[in-house]
Amino acid sequence: MMLVTVAQAKARLKLDVADNDPNVTLMIEGASAAVLNYLKKPEGYALNAIPPEVKNATLVLVGMMARDPDGTESKDWPQGYLPWAVTAFLYPLRKPTVA
After folding, report:
1. 31 and 50 in contact (C-beta within 8 Å)?
2. Rounded CA gap, 16 and 19, in Å?
3. What distance in Å separates the CA atoms of residue 24 and residue 91, rounded to the nearest whole number?
4. How far is CA 5 from the centre of its chain?
5. What was the pLDDT predicted at 99?
6. DSSP character for 43?
7. Among 17-21, 34-38, 81-85, whose mean pLDDT is lowest?
8. Does the predicted TM-score (pTM) go above 0.85?
9. Exposure check for the chain: N or C terminus, fewer CB within 10 A?
10. Cβ-contact 89, 55 below 8 angstroms
């Protein structure tokens, strides 16, 4: 499930050529999967019910992926965690794990 559209991501990234659409789509799919995993929502959302915080977090992560395609910046993130800029949007929506 893609949490944002290609048009939304391209607007955020300030891209206006269609040549990048397959790459943008791939980044959206990866970012969407990471966000849904963090939220523990494998079923996703109804398309008309995606919270704005989730869309913004996805767009931030897509932007990070576009800016750092080789993952140089991501080595600074703790293994298995999303960057602070993304989790700041998502943390209030996350379902806590009960041990």
Report:
1. no
2. 9
3. 25
4. 11
5. 66
6. T
7. 17-21
8. yes
9. C
10. no
